[in-house]
Input
Amino acid sequence: MRGAVVQTGTRKYVEYEEDDEFDGHREIKTQGREKNMAQALLSIQIIPKVNPGEEVIPYVDEAISIIKASGVPYRVGPMETTMEGDLDQLLDIVKQMSAAMIERGSPSVLSQIKLSVDAKANASMARLLQKYPDGQ
Output
């Protein structure tokens, strides 16, 4: 049994019963048995300009560590990283990533972003990847 959708203001939650079983869609019980449903998916390819002789990989690793530290569900791909969550939070993460690149010494940062916003707060990487969970 999945649980009932509950809306308070503009935020939607899923309320679970104690005996619910989860199907691998990263749904996690919280103390109040509520989970904020994802409003958006954001894929980003961050391309910091580096100084001559400098490698770009440490910059990209730092950008990914910012995503990881945020606690949002994410998936690293060979050309971009996709995050799932609240739109404002995802955009704040992008700002943090760009600022970190500048702080590290990059003179400029180019980011290519794909954004999917779901009015029903039903964005899910797991749902979109059900048919190809391993990318094949």
